[in-house]
Amino acid sequence: MALTIRGHLRTTPIDPVTADTAGAMAVPKSPGRLGWWALGAPPGAAHGTVLLAGHLDSADEGAGPLEALHDVPMGTRAQVTAADGTRHTYRIVARRTHPKSALPAGLFASGGAPRLVLVTCTGDFDPDAHAYADNLVVYGEPVT
User: Fold this and answer.
1) What are the distances in angstroms from CA 8 to CA 16, 80, 105, 119?
2) What's 11's domain CATH number?
3) Cα(106)–Cα(143) distance, rounded to whole angstroms?
4) Which SUPFAM superfamilies match (predicted)?
5) Phi-psi domain of 107 (left: phi exceeds 0; alpha: psi -120 through 50; beta: other)
6) Residue 31 predicted with pLDDT over 90
7) Structural domain count of the chain
8) How far apart are the first and last CA of the chain?
9) Of 17, 59, 22, the residue nearest 40 (C-alpha)
10) Cα–Cα distance for residue pair 8/26, rounded to 1 Å
């Protein structure tokens, strides 16, 4: 699987993930890869959320693939290429910031209207915890 946002995000590989030992969504260790919430909807599903998450940046490798989400204009198209090679296009329609402790549980829904959700870090960085305070969440609707 891979995600591309023309003009804003190079084609980035995606790995299926579930929860880590703390119960949070596991994100690939490599800042050059994204995680797809494998318990949610697959790309192109008629229902549910295709949830992709990745690092904003890393001390070793610099900017992560989702750093550009802060500047992606509404209406931009994002394309997810599924494991079978089919391409699914979504139009970016909203951007929200949530404290990490208050990330909406509905993002992990396997039902409901089809949508793409992209999640990365934002806000203040705590160097002692090696973590950002907030999450940036970008929403997309399927393009038919």
Assistant:
1) 23, 14, 27, 15
2) 2.40.260.10
3) 21
4) Sortase
5) alpha
6) no
7) 1
8) 20
9) 17
10) 24
Query: pLDDT tens digits for 75-128?
Result: 999 999 998 999 999 999 999 999 988 888 888 888 899 999 999 999 898 888
Domain holding 116, by residue range, is 2-142
Q: Parallel, antiparallel, or unpaired for β 115-126 and 49-53?
A: parallel
Distances (CA, A) of 51 to 14, 60, 97, 125: 11, 26, 16, 23
List the structure tokens of 118: 């992209």
Structure tokens at 40: 């949610």
Residue with tokens 């084609």: 11
The DSSP result for 6-55, as a single string, is TTTEEEEEEEEE-B-TTSSBP--SSTT-EEEETTSPPTT-SSSEEEEE--
Across 107-127, b (16+ Cβ under 10 Å) vs e yields bbbeeeebbbbbbbbbbeeee
Contact present, 32 and 25 (Cβ < 8 Å):
no
